[in-house]
Amino acid sequence: MTQHFDLAIVRKVNTITRGNFEVQDINGNILFNAKGFLMHRPKGFLMHRRVLFDAAGKPLVTLQKVRSLHDRWQVFRGEGKDFKDLIFNAKRSSMLQLKTELVVFLANIT
């Protein structure tokens, strides 16, 4: 049996959120929080990271943007950033898109 429900992504308009937002149900209950970070990497590259937390504040996954032509993201368990914590990679299927399509590569779990 499939159950559907509506979610809303909420950003505070009057503040600079830097990628922070909440996911709420239709009653306004917070289900998830996301916090974004910019990190400096070697050779002057900036790394975009977001951590998705559950309503209790426990980190669920970390999303890390990798510099590429297809906007590749890596998704890790919890606040992980090592390849042992990698769950999957995702990228746009094409550099030019009218409708977003992603290609997902599951991590090799050994």
Automatic annotation (TrEMBL):
This is Uncharacterized protein. Pfam families: LOR. Gene3D superfamilies: LURP1-related. Belongs to the LOR family. It comes from the Eukaryota. InterPro entries: LOR, LOR_sf, Tubby-like_C. Signal peptide: none annotated. It comes from Dipteronia sinensis.
